[in-house]
Amino acid sequence: QTIYRKDYTPPSYLVDTVELGFDLDPARTIVANRLTMRRNPASAQREIELYGEELELVALRLNGKTLGKRDYRIEGNLLRIAHAPEEVTLEIETLCAPEKNTALSGLYVSNGNFITQCEAEGFRRITYFPDRPDVMARYTVMLRADKERFPVLLSNGNLVEEGELGDGRHYAKWEDPFPKPSYLFALVAAKLVCQEEKFQLADGREALLQVWVEEGNLDKTDHAMQSLKRSIRWDEERYGLELDLDRFMIVATGDFNMGAMENKGLNIFNTKYVLANPRVATDVDFQGIEAVVGHEYFHNWTGNRVTCRDWFQLSLKEGLTVFRDQEFSGDMIGTSSGRAVNRIDQVRTLRQVQFPEDAGPMAHPVRPDSFVEINNFYTVTVYEKGAEVVRMYQTLLGREGFRKGMDLYFERHDGQAVECDDFRSAMADANGRNLDQFERWYSQSGTPVVQAEGRYDESARTYTLKLSQSCPPTPGQPDKLPFHIPVAVGLLGASGRDLPLTIDGKELGTTAVLELTESEQNFVFSGVAESPTPSLLRDFSAPVVLKYGYSDAELLHLFSHDSDPVNRWEAGQRLSMERLLKLTEVAAAGGELSLDDTFVEAMRKILTDDTLDPAFREQALLLPSESMIADQMDVVQPLPIHTARQFMRAEIGARLHNELLATYRSQQTPGEYSADAESIGRRALKNLALAYLGATPAEQALALAQEQFSNATNMTDRVAALGALIHANAPAAPDALNRFYDEFEDEALVIDKWFAMQATAATTDVAKVRKLMKHPAFNMRNPNRVRSLISSFCAANPVQFHAADGSGYAFWAEQVIALDALNPQIASRLSRAMDRWRRYTPELQAYMKQALEKVAGQTKLSNDVREVVSKALSN
Ligand code: ARG
Ligand code: ZN
């Protein structure tokens, strides 16, 4: 069942054209598929190979002749036709039942509308096809459906014809001029309305832009439309890449497994990444929409025009496109400190989610070598670590060098399905660089550890930085070879200013990018006037764990002065993490907790430093999460971690009470809501102040929260206030929750927040979650709802999920099994909540193992869940 990268063979037949005819009916949809194919000279295989899943085959004709049962073989999901001529026209008629499709892969019904999701292997649930990304064809699509129920008929490319069919049905014909792999196919047949606009492209052409939503949501499309226009402009300006169609559509659906999908010309989105107005969406939602709209749009070049040879190459498009959307978001903020805050967020995600993945049973390289179910590899490693790998090219080659590499990549590969190695070659060749060793970032899993040691020689005025690297073993990879690691370094003098850097007589400014390629290397800086404090891995120049024996004094120095904002933040994180780990130990031993003045003073200084952007201050004051603390421990103890972190929050809240209160008052954003970076930063800092104040027993904080809850005119302030009430377990919390529900009952995305806030409250135990599952608004078939309640509880309520009696794990097993019968992809995501089970106490481990075995012991289990739980049990 395991598929290996090394087993790749080219497709036996290539497809030139595909004509699809759909007679859309929720219970019984007829799909007529006419393919023109020819033998692939590059393949030794002579049989035609078509994939199909959950399809009823009605008819099959080859070059006009009906094929009987003896002319083809069906083995599992594969239909094989032997002895076919060089050139064939295949006609395939199949039936499917979209309304029964709860997996939300292929063609399904969402709130009465037809929607598709074909990546990675959903197209085979629509028709028989060589459903692999290296088969690229030209598509023509005819849609027929009841006009009243499905007034809008959309597919990829250009609308070429539409009309009536007489019997209350109508049709639309679409043509996509660009050859594409089947995973980019899409159709929508629905009752929807759109916000649309003509937009001028760089070459003078006009494109029609549309955002399609259900009628009641037309007041929430503007931000997505603005984001789309900014994305188009940005790709023109930064990479010289233009929209290649006359029409670009975004469709929002409430039932979607992932965030969004880059189908050619017809992006389909989870409503979460489209719908926003100040009443219902938070600042984070606004930012998420801009990023995801950008991401899907940027895929048009990095993914669609140049696509993947096979699914092992997924990061070729995903890592690159995440990098592009990150750069886009950074450029939209504009200011250097805004950019830094954006970067800090990326670093936090990486540490919080990707590093644990890389250290767990599902660890895999950015370009995996094998998989059982490809849907399990849409991971933070492929996406976010993949983006870091792309970012390292830019760090090594410079922005201009990176652009040259991109240009060469498109010059060589436009219209092709290629490999990660082809991208690396383009980067190397365009810059005359050897990037052979860099390949290890794609092939070796695990997070490298870089150990640094510095030595100042006063008489020689040199500073020697010794860097060494290692990488822990990961499943299937006991030994690693050295990586090519860019380490950006600065040296701070006693005044806090950067010292000028010189190596081998070369002046390197104030930040030098050192290239660590061996297991150990020395870098000697000359002309260093004083003993410096090193600022290492500036801007997080590589996805590694950096170790250096910093003293408190050095960290405080960096926290106050580092010119690199990411490392300034980092110094603060190190200061808090050290203390949190000690406090956790004390809490576990039942000792008395205390927090030193030095730390509190450092926090006070940042909080009150008005020369710093509020957004940066908020980041600097935010403590590492409970899961990040857990990652630093050999044996994880969720309750002491929680106790320690809560104690620290309460101490900061009490000892900086006056400053927090002043901040709360000074950072208000009166007047009309705006989602610009400055206002977002002010709200974030203000609401962090509220959260700290709310962590103390002071009545005043709760009064403020209640007042903010009642008077807020935007969702950011609303949920911040409600969160403060819930987390303080305030007497007013239940009533506020009820009011919130009543007010937003009709806003599905807000009700998701309502569930999620309760699911993650430390007071919410399994019994409470079970009760919430009985709420009429809960729906096991809706992925957003499942994520907001069940996944939030299992992944983000560590104290209750890891309850000593194992009840959290038993609940997890039950839900994974129930979900698996409906939607394997969602079940599989949830099953990942147990990844780190071997790091807990023996008592908890025993319960966790039992739960894992219960799931693994099910006779009917999807490949998705089976792969995850069996890897968890065996690694
Ligand atoms: N390509 C999409 C994106 O990155 C993700 C779709 C993945 N879907 C899936 N079912 N695996 O935006
Ligand atoms: Zn993507």
Automatic annotation (TrEMBL):
SUPFAM superfamilies: Leukotriene A4 hydrolase N-terminal domain, Metalloproteases ('zincins'), catalytic domain. Residues 446-548 form the Peptidase M1 alanyl aminopeptidase Ig-like fold domain. Transmembrane segments: none annotated. It comes from the Bacteria. Gene3D superfamilies: 2.60.40.1840, 3.30.2010.30, Neutral Protease Domain 2, Peptidase M1, alanyl aminopeptidase, C-terminal domain, tricorn interacting facor f3 domain. The keyword Protein transport does not apply. Keywords: Aminopeptidase, Hydrolase, Metal-binding, Metalloprotease, Protease, Zinc. Residues 85-184 form the Aminopeptidase N-like N-terminal domain. It is an enzyme of class 3 (hydrolase). It catalyses: Release of an N-terminal amino acid, Xaa-|-Yaa- from a peptide, amide or arylamide. Xaa is preferably Ala, but may be most amino acids including Pro (slow action). When a terminal hydrophobic residue is followed by a prolyl residue, the two may be released as an intact Xaa-Pro dipeptide. Signal peptide: none annotated. One of its GO terms (molecular function) is alanyl aminopeptidase activity. GO terms for biological process: proteolysis. Its EC number is 3.4.11.2. Residues 552-873 form the Peptidase M1 alanyl aminopeptidase C-terminal domain. Its cofactor is Zn(2+). It holds the Pfam family Peptidase_M1_N. Residues 224-441 form the Peptidase M1 membrane alanine aminopeptidase domain. Aminopeptidase N is involved in the degradation of intracellular peptides generated by protein breakdown during normal growth as well as in response to nutrient starvation. Belongs to the peptidase M1 family. This is Aminopeptidase N. It comes from Massilia horti. The lineage of its organism: Bacteria, Pseudomonadati, Pseudomonadota, Betaproteobacteria, Burkholderiales.
